[in-house]
User: What shape does this take?
Amino acid sequence: MTRSSADVLAGELASHQPGGTDDAPAPVRQFALAGPVADYDPRTTPIRGDLADIALAGRFFAPHYVEPQLHRVSAGGTMLRKAASRDSEAVSQLLPGEAFALLDSTGEWGWGYGLHDGYCGYALLTDIALDAPDPTHIVHVRSALVFAEPSIKTQMIAAYPMGAQVAVEATSECGKFLGVAGGWMSLRHAVPLDQRHCDPVDRAMQLIGAPYLWGGRGGDALDCSGLVQLVLGLAGVSAPRDSDQQMADLGRALAEDEPLQRGDLVFFPGHVGIMMDADTLVHANATWMQTVAEPLADVIARFPETTPQPVLARKRIS
Assistant: This one.
C-alpha cells in the first residue's frame, strides 16, 4: 500500500537513528494552506476524513497525504462503490484495462479514483492489479469475443464489453486478429487508443437493448450518463461521469430556436440522452430498463405535469 506523509516522515526519522538506513537525510516535504478551503465535489475530489491524494496538499487539509498507486482493472471489470461493502450502492463502474489510482486499502477493499474521470469510490482489490501492462487498444463494438486461437472456429474464452481497454501483444499472420491476454480478438473489434474518432451515435445505437444498470458504463449494461460518457469517449471526447457534471462541462448550449440534430445531448432532471436525429433520443433508462431509441416528445411527456422544466439543457459537442 502507498505510504502516508506520516509514514514517510517516520521512515526519514528512523534513518537518523542508530542503525538507520541512510546517512544522508532526505528532505521533508512540507505543505501549508494559503487561504480558505474552497467548496469541492466529493465525487471527484479524492479526500476523506483521514487522508487525501497528495495532489491536494496545500489546497485541502488532511491528516495524511498519499501518493496514489496506479493499478489496472482486471478482465472482469469492477463496480465502484460508495462504501467498502458488497451491499453498498454502486456509484460507477471501472471497465477492463482502465486505470485506478489506489489511495488506501483495508481488508478486501481499496479506495481511490478512476483515472479517466476522477470519480472516487471503493473497488475490490481482487479486481485490480498493480503490474498489469498498459493498454494499447479499446473495444468499440458492443461485445468483443476472445478466441483461443486466431480463428473463429476455436473456443471462445472471454468477451470484453464496449469501452474495455486491452494490451495487444501480437497480430496474427493473416492480420485479422489481435493477440491479447490469453487469446485472440478480431481486428475489427478494437481500435488504438490514440485513434478514437468514431461516430458516438453509431456506438449508442449499437447499445440499444443493453440492460439498464445503475452505475454501469460498459457495453454489457449501463445507465444514462454512463452511455453518454462511453460513446463520447469512443469518439475521443472526455466526459465527466454524472449527468449534472456533463450538463455543466460539455458542449455549448443551443438557443431556443436552434433545432436539434444528430449527436446533440438533451438533459432532463437526473437524466441525459443523445439524439439519433432531430426527433429521436437514444438513452439508457429505468422506465424500459434498457437502452432504447424513442421520440423525444414521448420522453418529455412522461415527466409529471408538476415538473417545472422537463428539459434542462440542450448541448452540442461540436
Notes: Residues 137-194 form a domain with the SH3 type barrels. fold (CATH 2.30.30.40). The radius of gyration is 23 Å. The chain has three domains: 5-129, 137-194, 200-316.
